[in-house]
Amino acid sequence: PTYYLYHAIIVGGPFIAFFLAVGFYQVRLQRKLWQMSHKDGLTGLNNRRRFFALMERANTNGPAGVLLMLDADRFKSINDTHGHQAGDTCLKSIAHTLQRSLRQNDIVGRIGGEEFAVYLPGVGKETGRVIGERLTKPIPFRTKGDQCVSVTLSIGAATWQHDISIDAVFARADAALYHAKENGRGRLEVWNPHLLTKEAETSDKLVSFGSM
User: Fold this and answer.
1) pLDDT in tens, 77-90
2) What whole-number distance in Å separates Cα of residue 94 and Cα of residue 89?
3) In this predicted model, which residue has the larger pLDDT, 68 or 194?
4) Which residues are marked as active site?
5) Are the C-beta atoms of 151 and 90 separated by less than 8 Å?
């Protein structure tokens, strides 16, 4: 019996090892594919599609929250002055700062380019304002030449109530972000109906000028 046992181990061992190796490879491959489909390749944050899905799930299963739209100020100038590698380092520093500064259940994503988004589930407008204003502080990073520079974020905030769509809350936060940029950058603007009026007036003026 001992002979047959050793024989089975010697003959079958390589096959068992092979199938185990294939199994581990498949698990690692699936994990990598999941990462590629859900995470931003540069910053490791949720990508746009994943952010939308997580935000919608949080809103469906819990109380209303606050959406922050964040945009890196004068990012093109950083790329032009210090190179694209410095631009990538800048974006990574922003991502690291966001992850370090927020709660565990907050949802963070890179929406595209130098634009990020944060969803704060279960908080009101004033709490969202406090958190957002904290994120407007300059974020330091180093260039390829080891020069220490910094970037600021302009932020637009909007409360997501259950009676408005996800597209509507993004439009509101984006309108607030536009005004943060217009009013000096490196600051937070919270959406209110007056901002919508300003947007409509600006749009009407553009139409009028275009028809002249």
Assistant:
1) 999 999 999 999 99
2) 9
3) 68
4) 114
5) yes
